[in-house]
Amino acid sequence: MKRFYKRAASSAADNGFAIHLDGRPIKTPARNPFNLPTRQLAEAIAAEWTAQGEEIDPATMPLTALAQGALDQVAHERDRIVGRIAAFSDSDMLYYRGDDSQQALADHQAEQWDPLLDWARQRYDVSFTLTRGIMHQSQSEQTITRLSEVVETQDDFTLAAMLSLVGLAGSLVAVLALVEGAYDADTLWPLVNLEELWQEQQWGVDDLAVETRAIKQAEFRAAVQFLDLSRT
Question: What is the pLDDT of residues 40-98, one digit of tens each?
C-alpha cells in the first residue's frame, strides 16, 4: 500500500491515546477505535507510521500489529486467546529433558531451567512433572488450573504480547516470569533456545538456523517492548 499521509502523531483521547494520520484518527482492520492504554505506546506506534517510506510495509510495524491484535482479537475473542496461551501450561518446553542417551544435555537443562521452574513453584504454588524425551506428560489439574487463572487475569494488551511470546518461546512459565518481572528478556532468550544453542556447540553452526533465530528474536523483542510500553 502506498503511503497516503504526510504526518503521523499521537494524542490523548477519551479512552486513552490515539494515533492520527494528517489529523484523522485511525481504526483497526476490524474498524474498532484504535485506543491505546499509554502515551509511551502511542508515541512508539506513531513513530512506526512516521518511519514508513513511499510504501507502507506492515512487517516493519510490529507494535501496530500487536495493538491491532489486542483490540480486534483479544477484546472480542478473549476466551479463545486465553485458551491458546494457557494450553502451554500442559506442554511447556521446560518440562521436557534430554532422553537417556542425552545425559549431558539433560544435566545442562536442569542447571539452566530448574531455577525458572522453582520460581514458578514458589510464585504460584504449583508442581511440575518432568519427563525424559519428547512423549507428552500431562501436568496435574491443579497446575493447569492455577496457571490458566494467572493468564485469565491479564489485560488485553498483555495477552496480545503473551500470545506472541509463548509462540516464540514455547514456554508459558518463561513468559510469566517476564510478565512478572522476575526475569528479563536478555536472560530468557538463551534459555528458551537452550537446546538449539546446545546442538550448535556440539555440531557447529547452521547458518539457516541462526538466521531464523535472529528473525524470531526480533519478534520476541518487539513483543517485549509492546508489553513494557503498554504498562508504562
Answer: 999 999 999 999 999 999 999 999 999 999 999 999 999 999 999 999 999 999 999 99
pLDDT tens readout for residues 158-181: 999 999 999 999 999 999 999 999
Residue 75: partners with Cβ closer than 8 Å, 6 or more residues away: 32, 156
Residues 125 and 220 in one domain: yes
Task: Identify whether 100 is part of a domain.
Answer: yes
pTM of the model: 0.95
Residue 17 to residue 36: CA distance in whole angstroms: 5
For the chain, how long is the longest CA-to-CA vector?
A: 63
Whether residue 213 is contained in a domain is answered as yes
SS3 assignment, position 55: strand
**Are 28 and 136 in a shared domain?**
no
Q: Taking a C-beta distance cutoff of 8 angstroms, is the pair 36, 17 a contact?
A: yes
Cell of 114: 530448574
Tell me the C-alpha distance between 201 and 96, whole Å: 20
| Cell digits of residue 181 | 518481572
**Which residue type is seen at 31?**
R
Number of structural domains (the chain) is: 2
Strands (E), 39-172: 96-97, 131-132
Q: Tell me the residue range of the domain where 29 lies.
A: 8-61
Is there a single domain that holds both residue 91 and residue 176?
yes
